[in-house]
DNA sequence: CTGCAGGGGTAAA
DNA sequence: TTTACCCCTGCA
């Protein structure tokens, strides 16, 4: 891969394992939207950027080399060799081989811990459009104004300090519902430093999970999502309904407990479990595998 | 058109 | 292990 500066942006040349729909529609993020021209615009770390791909070039608009170096390089996980991961997973069995071929351009974004925590608290028993709507409402009301891009206004995700002083009524947006109390509780625990969310990545996976589950509204699934999508813990294996379906379809008897599926995945995929989960999830959801039994 | 089940889990019983 | 949860969407 080669990085070049262009007007109001940069271009990544000769890039591998990087497909925009795979990355932005594999369920890991909620603030990226497809434009009419097929490009994607999104907000992360207080910036709004747009990505467009042509052959083996990815154009990142509305940024500069400095931000690329400090933010986007890490955010798009550009140091990781996905070719190697895909090779290892494909060697496991035919199911993995097929899943990897299907989502060949997936990359795991390294998102902000706090934003990921709140986003996945909102995701519980919720649907993607509703989750996105709730996150946008929080950002528009309590985030900072970033600017106007292509005729739309963009706002950063609100800091915990900003949400700390709010009441349930203040955040009673569509899609938040019963999760409102969890959000306020999380802001309180983080602001009061009862849980140091930005230090959890330095803990062992089991310990970080234990800490995350101290947050109200955070169970095994949400904690694994937060660890994998923001803390670089690839041995986490979040099991949502789609992963449960695809695991039951290919690997374990129907009705296997989540705990047993987790253990099965741990043994089968090891520290690549998170990546395996992501390829399986994308494959299962796009093809609706196991949906109609 | 109206009515109702269920959804990218978790907490509480 | 089972059930309620906000509320929107899909479907009967």
From TrEMBL:
- In its keyword annotation, does this UniProt entry include DNA repair? yes
Q: Which one of the record's GO molecular function terms can you name?
A: class I DNA-(apurinic or apyrimidinic site) endonuclease activity
Residue span, HhH-GPD domain? 122-285
Write down the EC number. Answer: 4.2.99.18
What superkingdom does the record give?
Answer: Bacteria
Entry keyword set: DNA damage, DNA repair, Glycosidase, Hydrolase, Lyase, Multifunctional enzyme
Keyword DNA repair attributed? yes
Query: What Pfam families does the annotation carry?
Result: HhH-GPD, OGG_N
Which reaction(s) does its UniProt entry say it catalyses? 2'-deoxyribonucleotide-(2'-deoxyribose 5'-phosphate)-2'-deoxyribonucleotide-DNA = a 3'-end 2'-deoxyribonucleotide-(2,3-dehydro-2,3-deoxyribose 5'-phosphate)-DNA + a 5'-end 5'-phospho-2'-deoxyribonucleoside-DNA + H(+)
Q: Give the main EC class.
A: lyase
Q: Which GO terms describe its biological process?
A: base-excision repair; nucleotide-excision repair
**PANTHER family the record matches:** 8-OXOGUANINE DNA GLYCOSYLASE, N-GLYCOSYLASE_DNA LYASE
**Per the similarity annotation, which family is this?**
Belongs to the type-1 OGG1 family.
Q: What is this protein called?
A: DNA-(apurinic or apyrimidinic site) lyase
Q: Which organism is it from?
A: Caminicella sporogenes DSM 14501
């Amino acid at each position: 891969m080669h990085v070049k500066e262009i007007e109001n942006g940069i271009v990544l040349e000769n890039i591998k394992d990087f497909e925009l729909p795979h990355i932005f529609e594999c369920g890991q993020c909620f603030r990226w939207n497809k434009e009419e021209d097929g490009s994607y615009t999104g907000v992360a770390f207080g910036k709004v950027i747009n990505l467009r791909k042509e052959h083996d070039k990815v154009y990142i608009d509305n940024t500069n080399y400095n931000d690329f170096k400090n933010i986007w390089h890490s955010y798009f996980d550009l140091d990781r060799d996905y070719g190697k991961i895909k090779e290892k997973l494909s060697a496991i069995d035919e199911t993995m081989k097929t899943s990897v071929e299907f989502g060949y351009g997936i990359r795991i974004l390294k998102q902000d811990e706090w934003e990921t925590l709140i986003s996945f608290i909102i995701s519980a028993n919720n649907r993607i459009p509703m989750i996105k709507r709730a996150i946008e409402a929080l950002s528009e009301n309590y985030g900072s104004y970033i600017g106007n891009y292509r005729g739309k206004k963009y706002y950063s995700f609100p800091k915990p300090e900003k949400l700390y002083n709010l009441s349930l009524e203040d955040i009673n947006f569509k899609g938040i519902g019963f999760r409102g109390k969890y959000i306020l509780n999380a802001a309180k625990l983080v602001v009061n430093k009862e849980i140091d969310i930005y230090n959890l990545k330095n803990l062992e996976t089991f310990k970080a999970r234990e800490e995350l589950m101290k947050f109200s509204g955070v169970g095994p699934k949400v904690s694994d999502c937060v660890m994998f999508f923001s803390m670089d813990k690839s041995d986490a294996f979040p099991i949502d309904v789609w992963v449960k379906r695809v695991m039951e379809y290919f690997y374990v008897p129907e009705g296997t407990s989540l705990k047993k599926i987790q253990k099965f995945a741990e043994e089968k995929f090891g520290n690549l479990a998170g990546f395996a989960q992501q390829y399986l999830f994308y494959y299962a959801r796009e093809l609706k595998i196991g949906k109609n039994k």
